Amino acid sequence: MVSKRKRVEAEGDKNIDANLVDTSLSFESLGLDQRLLQAISRQQYVTPTLVQAKAIPLAFEGKDILARAKTGSGKTAAYAIPIIEAIIRAKYNKPNERAIQAIILVPTRELAEQCLKVVNKLTVFCGKLVQGVNIAQNIPDQVQRSLLSECPDIVIGTPYRVLQHIKSSTLPVKSVRHIVVDEADLIMSYGYQEDLENIQKQLPPAVQVFLMSATLTPEVDVIKGLFCRNPAILTLHEGEAEAAADGGTVEQFMVNCSEVDKFLLIYVICKLGLIKGKTIVFVNDVDRCYRVKLFLEQFGMRSCVLNSDFPVNSRLHVLDQFNRNVYNLIIATDEADQIAPEDLVKEEEATTLSTQLSQKRSAKRKLRDREYGVSRGIDFQNVSCVLNFDLPTTSRAYTHRIGRTGRAGNSGMALSFVVPKDQWGKHKASSLDTAKRDEKVMARIQRDQKRNHGGAEIKPYVFDMKQVDAFRYRMDDAFRAVTRTAIREARTKELKQEILASEKLKQHFEENPDELEQLRHDREVHAVRVQHHLKHVPDYLLPEAGRRSLVKDLGFVGIHKTQQNRIRRARAVHKARSNPRRGDPLKTFKVRRNTK
Predict the structure, then answer these.
(1) How far apart are CA 148 and CA 193, in angstroms?
(2) Among its keywords, does the record have Hydrolase (predicted)?
(3) Is the backbone of residue 382 left (phi > 0), alpha (psi -120 to 50) or beta?
(4) How would you classify residue 246: left for phi > 0, otherwise alpha for psi between -120 and 50, otherwise beta?
(5) Which of the ends of the chain has fewer CB neighbours closer than 10 A, N or C?
């Protein structure tokens, strides 16, 4: 429950007009410590982003901040910089004091790792003065207690992990001056509300609060009433954020197609190179993930998989390799962000008690990795396209997905496949239950994009199906090879490989970092019958534009070497002179005459 004092103070929220803050600020004008400025300069941050220019001065005034800004706008640095600066100033007054001064709450382990990297980069020149620890990583409790016993200045973790350490007295909170709730609109959907309430009861009364979110939802209002006292609310609309980011835009398109045509279109798009750059393909369940991967393998196209089945170390390594351009195509699931749409509430309430119990048991099994998430909180870098192979079930999930591209001033594209209701269920092998409501969900998404995201429009994209149909028979061959048994075997095989790889990442590769380059996540699974003829596209199937993009005129390429070894050439000449018949097999051919 929210205390009376919290409720009264929350009623006096002060909305800060975005136009009242000078966006021409520089980091030097903020009065930061020289070591922090040097670290900022090392990261090539020239000027603060919009959310940083507005949040940092308010943070120095001691105000609670609720900031809503698009993904990739620099929200992490917006709260990390003032917290680090405050810790440095506190250390000048009490240089020998060792105490935990800031707690950063995040919904997923991947985001915790990302936050720690940002903190480490900003404290690279004052590492002995300011230290951060990530307790969300999958390490034994004894190791975490040892890390916390050294009293790090900043503790990063999920609400569940933080609360467990507070209860066990290994994380003292009496000296905490800053609390951050990152991705506030997502953290409640992971079931952390009770944990947040218990953490709030343990915090000192004068703690400064940072709430960072991509959208303002009722869940954010709950967290605001729980933690904040008269917060400064920064609502940075998409248009403002894009202007501050040098014009980064996301063009949104949708394609109406049948369920089996999804596979045809993704084959044509990827094989003909219609999308340039790195791409994230979103699907709605894990089996679907492997079906698409095995399907693309039939055409010689490699892709890596990212889902909640993978160990944490493997997931982090996949993200790191993707950001370093080792591979360009990821097939990802974001099942943690799939929320039942509003029109299914009555149907869910009508379920039997036995069904509810089985769902609860299934939910408990999934709790073992409830901190997984792909569509939110993960720093995918330089993503050119987000392909919604399966449309998400909510407009919020759609916003989170397309937020992976068009970040930090870059342009991007989002393409979504929408199955009309009259086309659903006609091809059982490719059917998905969530596709039945694609039209309703897309209508809701379009309304939300126009109302809440600066009038963004999702344009229809029409393929020339006469040219695409020429590839259908090849698609059918590949799709028939990907059976349910093949999907199950591929999923089991790759999971075993990733478990082994995860152990190697945790042990061997810590001592041999160079060997990480040899560990690939986009290798072929080969759980299906490989049809090598599908890897090459015949010229007669290619449209003129596609032929020009794929086939380049290399000119004449000789079969033999232009320069032959002089010793071998001399030997060949000598053999030809000494035995002229030996060089001509027709002259050595002998026929035995039958005398009978």
Answers:
(1) 24
(2) yes
(3) left
(4) left
(5) C
Domain topology for 4-243 = Rossmann fold (3.40.50)
Instruction: List, for residues 450-467, the tens digit of each pLDDT value.
Output: 887 777 889 998 888 888
CA 19/CA 205 separation, integer angstroms: 32
Short-list 375, 400, 281, 294, CA closest to 330: 281
Residue ranges of the chain with pLDDT lower than 50? 1-22, 238-247, 337, 339-369, 553-554, 556-559, 589
Sequence spans of domains, the chain: 4-243, 248-338+371-550
- Report how far residue 346's alpha carbon sits from residue 36's, in angstroms, rounded to the nearest whole number: 54
- Residues 266 and 296 sit within 8 Å (Cβ to Cβ): yes
Domain 248-338+371-550 has CATH 2.60.120.560: no
Angle at 133 between CA 128 and CA 135, to 5 degrees: 165
Maximal CA-CA distance, the chain = 120
pLDDT at 375: 52
Closest CA to 409 of 382, 379, 377, 386: 382
Q: What is the pLDDT of residues 302-317, one digit of tens each?
A: 888 888 777 776 777 7
Under DSSP, the state recorded for 594 is -
- What tokens were used for 168? 């066990």
Count the neighbouring beta carbons within 10 Å of the beta carbon of residue 534: 18
